[in-house]
Amino acid sequence: MTMKTGRAFIGALLCALFQFLTANSAEAAARVVEIARGRSWVSPYWGYSSPKIVSDGRAYYTAGLWGPDPDSSAGVLYKYDGAAWHEGAHLPDIYQPVTMVLDRQGRLIAAHTAQSKPVRIYRSNVPGNIDELDRLPSPPDMKNAYYIGIAIREDTLYLAYLVTPEYSMFLSSLNLTSLEWAPSRLVCPGQAEHKPKTAWTYPILFPTKEGLHFVASNAPDGGEGNTYNQVWYLFYPNGAQEPAVREMVAATPMGHMSYATDLAVDASGTGHILFLWNQRKYGEPLPPDSPPPGLYHAWRDGTSGVWQRARLLPSGYAGFFQSDRDLIAAAASNTAFLWQGPREGWKTAGPLCETSQMPGAPGFWDVISPASGSDLSKGLAIVTDSLMPAEDGQPQERVLWAILPE
Predict the structure, then answer these.
(1) Whose CB has fewer CB within 10 Å in the chain, the N or C terminal residue?
(2) Residue 165 preceded by cis peptide, ω within 30
């Protein structure tokens, strides 16, 4: 399988953000801040499924990935203290990029994959430190891991991962007090002998006090067409070994896209999913009466259990931001949308940042999430990257940048 290719908008306070959104202002209240630049074989933000930016309320944290190929690449931790981004620890032997959360003490936890090896997990020894890390154990029953998704709630770190060559997806959890892993449970057995394959990828995890919400996208032609044909939603009540809900939210024929980019759970317990739907890469066109291609929002009615869908954009991708009372979709097209409920739908709420501040077109795109253990009180924050134009036959330079509150 290969990667799926592809600011922070905000007022200083959530009320300022809300006023900006509802006023439909055309002036963005955020700034673009460059993180780092260099050359890498892949985006450090590859994959929309797992947190790439976190905040403890005092600083922001993210990670880069630098190197010309997987065998020589290293991850790098970064911290923004309000004045500048500072470079921290280097993480060697990295394949798929670093994903991160914060524990209840505010210590950074960073995880990444290594080729043909178990996941690697590190934790800062004290809050705010990105230079000195302790290695945490990998699940003892894990032989290798790809397409990881992580999330945190209280003292539990949740981890979903795909195992090769079977392409089966598993779910486990780590007690951060005892550092003991629960036995990995099989979420979806893989099937890679013939197409369409069964290979759940890019798991998105969202734990709540009731249980764990789980979304994944199936890759039926990985290594060849590299499309995604199904979006699945699962819910594991606390203590349950099997999901109480297992539902397919969207599907397309192989060669067309059904791919989840984010998951949120609102205060009422309603699950919300952003996903690409009906984009054609190859194969016969869809029937004329099919829903048009685009970026869609799906939400699950808590009473009926029926998924409702609404088209947000004709193209592009986005991530959710949740304030205390609002659900916002931040789109890579530099647009914010405010969810007003099933009856009113989405309201366009202006740009995320000044377009002139962007170093280039955004690549992968990650919006800060409560599932990362982050302090969201300062509002929406986003990390992304851009490739600069090639010069004199040299490899393209990659710029990492963030949209952060003023």
Answers:
(1) C
(2) yes
Mark the ranges of the chain whose per-residue pLDDT is less than 50. 1-27
> What was the pLDDT predicted at 324?
80
Say what the pLDDT of residue 28 is. 52
**Is it true that the peptide bond before 370 is cis, omega within 30 degrees of 0?**
no
Report the pLDDT value the prediction gives residue 295, as an integer from 0 to 100. Answer: 98
CB of 258 closer than 8 Å to CB of 280: no
Straight-line distance from the first to the last Cα atom of the chain, in angstroms, rounded to the nearest whole number = 40
Distance between CA atoms of 405 and 13, rounded to whole angstroms? 9
In order of 53, 55, 148, the CA distances from 368 in angstroms are: 6, 8, 17
| Residue 55, pLDDT score | 98
- 3 state DSSP class of 159: strand
- The whole-number pLDDT of residue 21 equals 40
Residue in 267, 283, 255, 160 with CA at minimum distance from that of residue 212: 160
Question: Cα 213 from chain centroid?
Answer: 14
Tokens found for residue 259: 């791919």
Quickly tell me which residue has 């309320």 as its tokens. 57
Rg (CA), the chain: 20
